[in-house]
Amino acid sequence: MRLITSSVEVLYTEEEVNVVLPKILKDFLVYLTTITGKSQRTRKEYEYDLVLFFRFLKAIEQDIAIADLQKINISDVTIDKIKEITLEDLYLFMEYCEVQRGNSPAARARKVATLKSFFKYLKGKRRLIEENPADELETPKIGRKTPVYLNLQEAQQFIAATTMQQYSERDYCMMIFFLNLGIRVTELCSLNLQSIQGRHITVVGKGNKERTVFMNESCYEALQAYLLTRHTYKGDGAEPLFVSQKGTRFARQSIAKIVKQLNKATLNKEKLTPHKLRHTSATLMYRAGADIRSLQHILGHSSVATTQIYTHIEDEQIQEVMENNPLNNLR
């Protein structure tokens, strides 16, 4: 039985992919993508959370074993039934996610965001409910993690490994983009030939927000070398910048596999991913003197607070300065 997965947790089994959704849930998912600009991946995660939520409520109400949750039909969920949902029901669901499903604080926080968004839509946009039970639902606290990144020497070794690859110009260009532009893997996949305008590249980030980033010499030279060897695109629609040997647009998983192969050939770092290359880029730029606002634009962060996680380097630098003080270790 194949599993349809996300970066957070397992989504639907193959047999559940065609789950029948109630109309109100379908309407909400359309609203997410067409009005709020959420990606298809985010939409699928919201769908999964809400299907799980309504199945859980039905299981509790009808005394169905939790083990049979995936078999529960929710196509008959109506707005009248939704009006009966209370804050206590939401708490019970979150307890189930934590205790029985073993969801991390991050996974539970996503579910809270899903529920809040759904009930806000019902009350604010559709005027279908008078009370929003998710108004007082708290988001689990998530400890802020220090970004994992490569140091300069490791990054150089990693880049050098691309020369050993079969499609070295293409792989070199993609890795150079990761490490110089701080680009997300989904952004790299969605780049088109028309995204390039001279020395600038237009990147479509989260929420379909566009940002224009300058390509430095390394990026520009890598791009020109790759374009000479680029495969012919065999699909429809806009011409992707990066084309696989099969003539298709790259998927996130394919690029992650290339990163894994390069890592195995050189550094063999634990769980090196395209996102950690993005962290590396941001960290090295900050260490080289980039200010937070410039870094925010380059990375496409909607809030500067997100960018500020890279200021953890200051602590390392301060410690190094203190250790190198000539008056240190006098005795």
Automatic annotation (TrEMBL):
GO cellular component entries: cytoplasm
Gene3D superfamilies from the UniProt entry: 1.10.150.130, Intergrase catalytic core
Tyr recombinase domain: residues covered: 145-323
Pfam families per record: Phage_integrase
Segments forming a coiled coil: none
GO molecular-function terms, A-Z: DNA binding
Recorded superkingdom: Bacteria
SUPFAM superfamilies linked: DNA breaking-rejoining enzymes (SSF56349)
Domain Core-binding (CB) span(s) in chain numbering: 19-123
Key words, A-Z: Cell cycle, Cell division, Chromosome partition, Cytoplasm, DNA integration, DNA recombination, DNA-binding
One Gene Ontology term from the biological process aspect of the record: DNA recombination
Subcellular location(s) per record: Cytoplasm
Predominant location: cytoplasm
PANTHER family: PHAGE INTEGRASE-RELATED, TYROSINE RECOMBINASE XERC
Protein name: Tyrosine recombinase XerC
